[in-house]
């Protein structure tokens, strides 16, 4: 009888874990898609005319204003002011592309308030 209870407890524990994993994956997929949907849904293009993103190409990031643009905290990349677009949700967003096996900024979105404080510079 004790062996049956042990097996039942193991099966129940496995089922609970499976349900939790499925719920987590479902929420993660919905969350990541919801974040970049305003970017992909509105057809934003980068400074050179390429599409900013498809599904799961854009992520909220930490960034700091520096002279002439923004520095991304996670990658250390510099984005010049003239390549920055206004963010609709007051967060910093990085959309990436794969270039020679390395993820590079394709589009960058910053809160409008920070863009108004940063003077635009000519890129030509």
Could you explain how this protein is built, in words?
The longest helix is centred in the first third of the chain and has 40 residues, at 2-41. This protein is of the alpha+beta class. 16% of the residues are buried. It has one domain (1-124). It contains 2 helices and 7 strands; from the N terminus they run αβββββββα. Strands 1-6-7-5 form a 4-stranded mixed β-sheet. A 3-stranded antiparallel β-sheet has the order 2-3-4, with no helix packed on it.
Number of structural units classed as domains: 1
Overall 3D geometry? elongated
**Reading side by side through the largest sheet, how are the strands ordered?**
1-6-7-5
Low-confidence stretches: 18-35, 120-124
Distance between the termini: 80 Å
Number of distinct beta strands: 7
Helical fraction equals 25-40%
Number of helices: 2
Largest sheet: 4 strands, mixed
* Strand/helix succession: HEEEEEEEH
What value does the average pLDDT take?
A: 75
**Beta-strand residue percentage:** 25-35%
Using only C-alpha atoms, the radius of gyration works out to 21 Å
Strand-pairing-aware structural class? alpha+beta
Please give the structural blueprint.
Layout: H1 2-41, E1 58-61, E2 63-66, E3 69-72, E4 78-80, E5 84-87, E6 92-99, E7 102-111, H2 112-117
Parallel strand pairs: 5-7
Antiparallel strand pairs: 1-6, 2-3, 3-4, 6-7
In short:
The chain has 2 helices and 7 strands; from the N terminus they run αβββββββα. It is α+β, with helices and mostly antiparallel strands and 124 residues long.
Fill in the keyword field for this structure.
single chain, 124 residues, alpha+beta, 4-stranded mixed β-sheet, 3-stranded antiparallel β-sheet, 37% helix, 30% strand, disordered C terminus
